[in-house]
Amino acid sequence: MKNMQVNANKNSNLSLAGALVLAGGAALALSQYFIWIHAPVEVTMGLVQKIFYLHLPAAWWGMICFFIVFCASIGFLLRRSPAMDQLAASAAEIGLLYSTMALATGSLWARVSWNTWWTWDPRLSTALIMWFIYAGYLVLRQSIDNRRKMRMVAAVLGIMAFLNVPLVFLSARMWRSIHPAVFASEGGGLEPEMLTTVIVCVVSLGLLTAGLLMFRFRQKNIQERVLDLYRH
Q: Are 90 and 53 contacting, i.e. CB atoms less than 8 angstroms apart?
């Protein structure tokens, strides 16, 4: 009876993950209307500015995923739960994917805006450092054969790695930066139609992220069980 209940809960979580992915995909499709029709064309940069509506959500959700790594790593050290380690690994993979998207789209934007693919601006530099830290985190997880030791080392690194994330977010405020401001509090601001589009894109990618995270966590859990069966 207990096993049947556990399987029912897992199937329910899998259905929820599928629903979130489908909802996120539909919302992202809808967001194209807001990006290309609802939001006005920016006067200075023209159509290339619309890459911002992918760049910003990817950057934000990447950092949120790294925050999940941070929280799950603390949870693992407190409870020694393999599930917490699996959640941290899943979030790190998705976060690194989004950070790669943010850096790539940022470079495309920079080429038009600053006439260069890359400049050592504080926000860009700290974002690149963050990317290397979490790439190293994932490489480290694959380089230690002892799973117990790997989880402990990864949890400590997952906590320490997050120290750079707030620095990325605050870098434009802390140092002189040519990175464009988004909100009025940063010295910038968006037209109402642009702000609405940003919100739609952030929510859309958030739904997709939640579904992907649940799917990847489920895969990690199954992989762990298969390895346990193989070793025994």
A: no
Q: Provide CB contacts within 8 A for 110, sequence distance 6+.
A: 116, 117, 118, 119, 124
In a domain, 165, yes or no: yes
- DSSP-assigned beta bridge partners for residue 46: 42
Structural domain containing residue 155: 2-227
Model pLDDT for residues 136-159, shown as the tens digit of each residue: 999 999 998 898 999 999 999 999
Q: How far is CA 95 from the centre of its chain?
A: 3
Contacts of 123 (CB under 8 A, 6+ apart): 168, 171, 172, 177, 179
Q: Does some domain include residue 232?
A: no
Look at residues 140, 137, 139 and name the one whose alpha carbon lies nearest to residue 159: 137
Cβ neighbour number for residue 191 with a 10 Å cutoff: 11
Q: How many domains does the chain have?
A: 1
Query: Is 100 a member of any domain?
Result: yes
